[in-house]
Amino acid sequence: MTSPTPHQPQPTPSVQQHPHTTEPTDVPQQAQAPQAPPEPAPYQETRIERAIGRGFGRVTSSALAPYQTAVIRIGFSATWLLFLLREWPHRAVLYGPDSPWSLDMTRRLLDGNHAFSVLPWSDGRGWFECVYLVAVVASALLMLGWRTRTMSVLFMLGVISLQNRSVFIGDGGDNVIHLMSMYLVLTRCGQVWSLDARRAKRAAAAAHASGGDAGAPAASRAAAAHASGGDAGAPAASRDLPGVVLWAVLGLTLAVAQLNGSYGLGLTEGGPFPHIGWSLVLWGLWLVHGLWWAVQRYAPGEPRTVLDTLAKLAHNGALLVIVIEVCLIYATAGWYKIQGSRWQDGTAVYYPMHLDYFSPWPALSELLGSNGVMVMLITYGTVMVQVAFPFTLFNRRLKNVLLVAMICEHLSIAFLLGLPFFSLAMVAADAVFLPTNFLTWLSARLSDLRERLFSRSGAARRGDEAGGGGPKARTGHGGDGHTLVG
Q1: 274 or 328, which is more confident?
Q2: 266 near 277, Cβ under 8 Å?
Q3: DSSP H or E stretch at residue 369
Q4: Dist CA 81 CA 88 (whole Å)
Q5: Hey, is 234 helix, strand or coil?
Q6: CA distance to 74, 179, 194, 205, 409, per residue, from 325 (Å)
Q7: Which residues contact 398 (CB under 8 A, 6 or more apart)?
Q8: How far is residue 153's CA from residue 253's CA, in Å, rounded to a whole number?
Q9: Longest Cα pair distance anywhere in the chain, in angstroms?
Q10: Short-list 421, 438, 467, CA closest to 70
Q11: Nearest alpha-carbon partner for 380 in 415, 347, 406, 356
Q12: Neighbours of 359 (CB within 10 A)
């Protein structure tokens, strides 16, 4: 019995019938490999987006126009200081208990216009003398640049307290000082030409000398914090005893006034903004100063960077408001003059020159006023310069020419019409447009003069900025030179 023949596997019919077929019909096709999606084209920024990005980076990376803001600080504080010293014998009649505008009338007026003054807190003469003296001291210290953040707040309080006490005393220059005193609180006006900057530079030099190259970053941070007008830098905050004492005394004074229910210290009413009273504003400024010191002392890194960026934004925003304010002053003054018939026929300047009240030099006023061609040129020139100036800000050379003309105009008003403080206030406002290169050149000349006068320490200070610790000047003529403020 034979074994059965094993069954041999037979090839599939398809293979036998189509031996040359490359892809058998009964075998499923291989799945196609998924193709990667095409990479999107890189995003191309538009010109407007690039400009916005550069502008945002610039306003958040540095406090612009340090020299211009320093000139504004010195100019307005010096103007107010000189005015207070000149009126020292008449202070009680102008703003004090002897004023014909009584304190009760002042309180009723402040209730209506929501302005602020510390003088209504007390009817006593001692309180008035204290406020007047503090206003004088704050103006002098702000001019010198000592504790500029704190002194700017005290300077503002002194200006608005005295001016709001007797609102019918003053002129256009007082209105400009009133506005600029509030704007200065938000600026870093002590970066250059200040005792704060000098102190910061010396602290940085001492830290660098003691720590070598390893202490250089800390020294630079100290210089930056001090030069910004602060009361303390990061490494030197623990040694800032005067700043801490000053901050504590002012907080205690405000707390006592708040507990006594002093006039005008409402939290949510009677303030500069809706639902924000003057008490809330003052406490906010006090807390911001304390927060700045605490962050510089105890919170290095991101908190310090964020706070510093916010301070730069506030500075640059306030600087923009100052620029717009000055442009509005000249634009409105010029357009109002155009509507006057005396300005249209070219005789407007003639009349104040022949008023005894505005003629400190009668012979000179008579000489200029008797020349009809000169009167017409001054009248028309004044209108043209004031109307044209805001439209020339983006042309640096033409702007500088008109700026010189306006400064000369205000100096002539001070000399011919006997309005020195009005003219000084307007010249200080014009200083926001002074070229940076001119200010740094002036700083170098003053530094050379100081070295000649005080040759004893001239070698140690050679090459330093006047005031110390300031940013270097821009000497190039690229895009940075064609800014609104120089």
Answers
A1: 328
A2: yes
A3: helix 362-369
A4: 10
A5: coil
A6: 18, 9, 25, 39, 19
A7: 392
A8: 14
A9: 159
A10: 467
A11: 347
A12: 18
